[in-house]
Each structure stands twice: as C-alpha cells, then as structure tokens.
Amino acid sequence: MFLLVAVLLSSPIALQSARMFDARRGVNVQPGLVVIDGDRIVQVGGTVPAGARVIDLGDSTLLPGLMDAHTHLTFEAGKSWYRDTMDAMLRFPAEQAQYAGEYAKRTLEAGFTTVRDLGSGEYIDVGLRNAINSGAVPGPRMIIAVHAIGSRGGHADNDAFPTDRMPTASVKEGICAGPDQCRDAVRWQMKYGAGVIKFMPSGGVLSLGDPVDAPELSQGEMDAIVEEAHHWGRKAAAHCHGDLAAKMAVKAGVDSIEHGTFLQPDTLNEMKKRGTYLMPGPIIQPGVPPEEEISKYPPAIQEKARAADKAWPQMFRNAQKIGVHIAFGSDSGVGPHGKTNPQQLTWMVEYGMTPAQVLQSATITDAQLFGVTDRGELAKGMLADVIAVPGDPLKDIKAVQHVSFVMKGGQIFKNGPAKEQPKKLLLKAARLFDSQKGVLIQGASVLIEGDKIVAVGKDLQAPADARVIDLGDATLLPGLMDAHVHLTSESQDDFAKAFVEGVMKFPAQEALEAHLFAQRTLEGGITTIRNLGASDRTDLGLKRGIQLGFAEGPSMLISEEPIGSRGGHHDGVNAPAEHLTPRGPMEGICSGADQCREAVRWQLKYGADVIKFMVSGGVLSLADPVDVPQLTPDETAAIIDEAHAWHRKTAAHCHGDAAAKIAIAAGVDSIEHGSFLKADTLAEMKRRGVVYIPTLMAVENVEKRAREGKLPPLVAEKALAAYSGLFKTFRKAAELGVTIGLGTDSGVSHHGFNAHEVTLMAANGLTAAQALQAGTINDAKLLGVEDRGVLAPGMRADVIAVPGDVLQNPSAVEHVSLVVKAGRVVKAP
User: Fold this and answer.
1) CB under 8 Å to 10, separation ≥6 — which residues?
2) Which residues have a Cβ under 8 Å from the Cβ of 557 and sit 6 or more positions away?
3) 544 to each of 92, 95, 827, how far by Cα in Å?
C-alpha cells in the first residue's frame, strides 16, 4: 500500500557506505560518503561534518539516481493486447492516472529519479508530472513529450478503428501532414508543457497497420519538427526502427534515435560523427525465446516483433563497436515499470558493455542527452538524487535490481524493505465507545483478524502471532464517516486563483493531487466518505486508486456530477459560452423531467453510488440566489424516482426552505446544508426519516473568509446569511429529534480536519454521544454500509483512537492517534 513516506530533512544528512560510484571516471571510490543539505549535495568524501545525521548503509554502493531516457509511465502492457486495448478505451483519464501514479512510484523505488517520458495521451503525463512536482504522489522527475508527432496511419496515430467509433487524432494530438502542420504539432505539445519533442520517422512494432522499418515522415516534415523543437530549446527524440528513416532523422539534426533496430553501420557511423545518441531499448533478454511474450499480440504485430528481435542484437553490438553514444532507456510500459528498467541494465552487460559503462549510460550519458547539468553524478552542488545497492555493482551488475535506498532531492523515499502488516491485531485502551448505546465501556479491547473484528471485550488475550497496540488513556471508536465531502478539490484563500487553476488543471492532475486530500482525511480518523460532486470523473478515478491500493484514503461512495438546472449551483460560473464549454445532461445539467432522468442515468452509467442534486442555490456559486428552488417538483421527482429505481440513495443540496419541501415531498433521503429550514419542514423530515447533514464547519469556514474579504461580494453576502441561518436550523433540528448525520463539505474547508464537525455539533445542541453517533451508526445507515460504524464482532475493522475520555471532551476527536482501516494500521502512535 502506498504511503508517501518521504521526509524533507531539516538538518544535514551524511550517507555512509562501503563504496560509491564515480560516474565520470567509471570507478568505485572507497569508502562512500555523501553529505546532503536541503535538496543538494554539499560534500562528497572526507569526514562526517559535526551535527549531521548519519545513515550508515553498510556494505553497499552509493550511486547517482539512475535515469531512463525512454519510458511510458502512463501505461503498462499486461498479458493480453486485447485486454490492454479494451481497458484503454474504457478508462477515463482520471482513472488511468491512478495506474500512472503507481507506475511512477515503482519506478522511483527501483532507483530511477529522472525519466524522459516519450509519449502519452489525454495529458495524463502532464498531470502526473505536475502531481509529482507538487508532492502529491511519489515519482521520478519527468521530462515529458505530451503527444508523439507522426503521420496519419503511422505509429503515432490510433490503430485503424472506424472513425465513427473512435475520435480521429488531429494536429493537436500530434498527427500532421506537411512541414507547416508538423511545426504546428510541435507547438501544440509545447503549449502544454513538453520538455522534449518525440516524433515517429519510421513505423513501430506495436501498431497494427504500418511497416516497422519504412519512413513515415518526409525529409521536410522531419526538418520542420526538429528545427521547431530546437527553436523552443527542446531536444528531439526520433522513434525509429528503420535504417532509411534514421538517416533522414539524423540529417534533420535529431538528438537521439530511439530503438534503432535495423540501423546499418554507415548510419551508426554518421550518428557517431554528428554526436547523435542511440537509445537502444527495450533491451532484449539474451538467450530467452521471445515467443511467449510475442504470442499475446495480433498476428500483424507478431510478425514485426520477430523481425525486430532478429535484427536488434547485431545492431547493438555494431553500435558499441563503432562507439556511438549509448543512452539508457527501457521503453518501460512495454515491460513492467520498476522491474524492466533495472533488468535491462543487467542485460546490456550480457551484450558486451562493462558494468561501469552501463551505469554511466544511465547517469552521466542520459544527463548529457537530457541537457540537465544538475544531476547524473555524486558531486558537490548537484541535486541530492542518491541511491544505494547492495554489494558492488561493478562486480555484479544484478545489484541494481535490489535497490535498498532512494533519495530524490534530499527526500528519502525508500530505506530498506517495507514493513509487513500484521494479520492479527489487538488494540487496548482505557475505554471504548459503544456507538449503538452511546456509552463508554471501560477497559475494553478489540481483536482484529484480517479485515474483520473478531472479538470485543475486557481482558482479551492476545494471540501469540498478534501485534499488540496499547493506547493507554485513550478511547477506541469506530472509524468515523463523513457523508458530504469533495475529495478531489480544496478551496484556497484566493478565490480567483483557485478558480483559474481549477479551469487549467487536467483531470489526471486533479485526481492525483486528491491523493493528498484522501490521505489527510483518513489520517484524521475518517474511514468512509460519501463524495458528493466532482467533475471529469475525478472521484471515480480516486475511488479506483484507493480500491487498488495505489492511494491511501477512506472508502468512497461517489455521486459523479451533481444534477442541476441551467444557471444553477452546479452549472458553474456565469461566463460567456464562448469562454467556457457549457455543460449538458452528461455533466448533470438538465431541463424537464425526462432530461433530468437522463442526467441521472449518465452518472449511474459511470459508477455513481449515490445521486446528488441541487434543488436550491448555493453559497459559492457566483450568480444564483442561495435559497430559491432551482428544480421543479416534476424534475425533482424524476431524479429521485430514477435513482431509487437503480437502488441508489439521493442527497439534495438545499439551503432554502421551499426547495427542501419539494425534495422531501419527492422522497429524498438526505438534505444537505439546510441553512434556512423552518420548524415545520424539519418536523416533516423527522416524520419521513429524512436525514439532515448540516455541514456546520463549511459554513463556519466561508463566514470567516467572507468577513476577511476573501470572497467575491455576492458570495460573501450569501455566506454570511447562510452562517446566520444554519446554526439556528441545526439547534432546532436537534431539539425536534431529526436524524442527523455527520457531513462536513470538506473541500470548502481543508481536508483532514473533518472531525471538527463533531466539536461543533456537541457545542450546538447535541450531546457528545449523539455527535459521535451522527458520524458512525447514523451515517452507516444513510450510506448503506452497515458492516461498519460499530465496534462489534463481524464488523469491518475500521477503528480509531483519541486521547482521554471523548464524552467528557468531544474535541478529542480532532487529535486522532490511531487509525485502522479494514484491519490495516494506517496511523499509529
């Protein structure tokens, strides 16, 4: 399971080892000592400076962080080409980004701290790079190409799917005809952040229609691509198997030839003369018949793969003999990330390179190709990208497959093997909260096996193979739930800045940056949430990432896009349609009962667990009144009826009383916010069993921002009105006995502080026990997850601990010391 364990070291750190690799000279130096301060190396060799923290890595070799000149971090081939192709069609960018985040993590933990990512789709590489740079996910530094550039029908184009079934790639996606269009294609990639330009002079192995060795671009097109890249200060990398195509690319001034399968000695000699680099990967495993790998592809690809495998070894030997600059690149994505990269380093030795030459190819040679001067060697002033491998890789290059330590920019991402989670766990504390009765049990313990609670009681004996965590003077509680969050975004003090940045972010980046929000939420004691609204299926992506173990976070129920009216709270800002793309039923905007049913079905098609709709205006929208109905009774009834037909609950965003009456009459399951609800409306909610989710802390947050002048005038006016009304409504709901659930609207406030809602509830009319029940048994029933919310045998092992007696001091829930989710320790004292 992914946990971002990187720690920025505040004091100098000294890495000691038996030896370190001098990448410039290609030799080991003994002993190894590298001193880091911040993100830079400040000393190499000598003695440990006073005050430095020492990490002794023993009989290992320190190396510069490795580099890979050719990756595809946003994709990874599986056992079936057909399954891979189907998955690529079905996954949204926000979901594929979750896999990309995992591939990046594996690559970094394998010791690769910088990669050149040569081609992606839907701007997933842009999102991944930005998320890594922001610290949201761990991964190597990425130099990205965005879309590869090539010809219609060539290796950069989609395979030959009928055009009425799959969108046709255009110049924006890198497909060009003629020098002018090809220049434009380069500029499109530059617009979205390309750090290198990749183009396809020849066919490829893994595309269905094109011959592998034939030129696919004219000399004029190649000249234009390379010239334009160089004008922008970018290197150009040519995917090229064929010899004639390579000659043309070299003539155009390309910086590197990728693959080079069929290159002849005269072409290699010309590359040496011009200083053109060869990236020969993927390196073919010597002596292993490739048929098992080849057989997963369609016949047209199999034929090309066999021809390439036959020709490649001689080309690689010729390149070494001639003395071409050989850069290391794995083409990972074709093979598994984090595994194929170091494997291929070992195979290069079997083809005649020395271990030192191999390590140089993945350090200083790649650095020269990339045009980066701040990495690639262990030297003073360089970025603190340092790895360690056991033993001496110059004697046994296979040591690079067992990286034990990884530092990138002074942050430690790996130090020894990951700790295994115990299969049995005994939690002991001074007291335990019985959420069904609303009382404390003194001296109770919880025994967990796997993901289930197996026993609860006093004086439980720990099995011999169990891990025991004694929390002392603390209270054990069921993991809390939050019935109203927005995990894929978070507000900022600068309203306009947040708005513009939100419009500019691609879904992949938004879904990956949400990893931080999800982790903070879980570590704050919230083990299950209901995510009520996101765009571009980013909630679907995050949910999938958590399920797969790629992200750390609470279990998620998602609503996809909320349903609402044109000009209403969900319709976005009141910008001209020429400036921002208008939303339609697929994005939740509807008019009339039939179209509102269709909007519900769009969300259900893509995995909604709950349907949220906007029956009244909202606080943070720029144009609509906060308290007036925005859907008709017929539209509201259609939404709820359709959701219930699919066995989904409905949640109504609603501040106004008249709008709430419409939703309640139609059979809604919960009212969210309810700032201006009247006593008769609350009484009707109690009679019908409609749950009230007040989101007190969200309104508290926007009221504070309004008074500080951090919101636009109309939004500030609505925020102050909502604050004035909501706490009165909440106190009346508590007095009348309306069922109240815990929901925070986090995302409006910062994620991870959700438990503050318990404090606010307990200060405004609920007892501490009732406030805790709102976030346990009440939410569990509303969310339809009745395997949690209670500490009892057979329940899912979601357990948290807070200091002291939580019924005496309910704000203790804001200081969670232990989090166990489904039997796995996420946070411990």
Assistant:
1) none
2) 528, 529, 530, 531, 609, 610, 783, 785
3) 11, 7, 22
pLDDT at 622 over 90: no
User: pLDDT digits over 264-314, tens only?
Assistant: 999 999 999 999 999 999 999 998 777 878 889 999 999 999 999 999 999
Q: pTM of the entire structure? A: 0.95
Q: Classify 798 in phi/psi space as left (phi over 0), alpha (psi -120 to 50) or beta.
A: beta
CA–CA gap between residue 530 and residue 538 (Å, rounded): 14
Residue 449 corresponds to which tokens in the numbers above? 């096996």
Please check whether residue 774 is in contact with residue 544, taking contact to mean a CB–CB distance below 8 angstroms. Answer: no
Amino acid at 692: Y
* Cβ atoms < 10 Å from Cβ of 710: 16
Amino acid at 691: V
| Sheet of 670-673, strand order | 610-614, 649-654, 670-673, 691-693
CA angle (741, 745, 748) in 5-degree steps: 160
pLDDT in tens, 484-516: 999 999 998 888 888 898 889 999 999 999 999
Sign of CA dihedral 729, 730, 732, 738: positive
- Residue 94 is given by DSSP the state H
Give the residue from 587, 590, 593 showing the smallest Cα distance to 561: 587
DSSP string, 728-762: HHHHHHHHHT--B-----BTSS-TT-TTHHHHHHH
Q: Which residue has the tokens 């998955």?
A: 87
Among 396, 404, 315, 389, which residue's Cα sits nearest to residue 356?
396
Helix, strand, coil percentages, rounded to 5, for the chain: 35, 20, 45
What is each CA distance from 608 to 368, 533, 635, in whole angstroms? 49, 10, 19
